[in-house]
Amino acid sequence: IRFTVTAKGPGITYQWQLSDDKGNTWRDSSNKTAEYATTLSDKNNGRYVRCVVTDKYGNAVKSNAASMSVKSGTPLAITAQPASVTSLEGKSIIFTVKATGDGLTYQWQLSDDQGKNWRNSKATAASYTTTLSTTNNGRYLRCVVTDQYGNSKKSDAAYMKISSLAIIGQPVNASGKSGDPVKFTVTAKGPSITYQWQLSDDAGKTWRNSSNKTAEYSTTLSSTNNGRYVRCVVTDKYGNSVKSNAVSMKIK
After folding, report:
1. Cα–Cα distances in Å, from 187 out to 193, 214, 230, 245?
2. This prediction's pTM
3. Which of 144, 176, 184, 192 could form a disulfide bond with 107, CB atoms 3.0-4.6 angstroms apart?
4. CA–CA separation, 6 and 35 (whole Å)
């Protein structure tokens, strides 16, 4: 914070004085310019300042006394950090920061060198939304939160990453005689993938989960499942999912 006095006169000099008892007693500071600057803290909270201006003839005038005080309010703090996101290419992803404080503003920053250098983005809300692509794959981001008093805090850095989840082998249609065994297989890659086969008896309009949770679905052809469609939903450890092609089983 800064205090400034403007004066006129022949050969004037300045002497700033400080008081910690609301102006009852004063002591000289080391500042002898037209401006007094300091950092506001609990130590000088409530302190008064004034300037004694003296001309070359020894005439002196005192400025008004001014005070400095720490404003009361909610302390600035980040209460929820943005979390890294691994998702599928083309998906809309969102990062959110939560903070407490007075008159908060937000500035999201981006880094393409794992946090070594940062640049401001256009996002100035508590959330940052983007579409995951090869352009921003591996990008880091963080949010600088500032309160109305000029205090700032940076969030933790989070990253965005394209998941390697993909189906590389699709199931194919199966047919045979009633009572023949049929088998459908899906081949997929990705981190810690799980499988959920789904069934449809209306040509794929609606689906229900089966009890099968492996890479292979086997059954016996019958009049009950004749014309039934099957597909597999493959999910990675981040919650990303991809669906296989829908294929059918038919009695010849």
Report:
1. 11, 11, 15, 12
2. 0.67
3. 144
4. 9
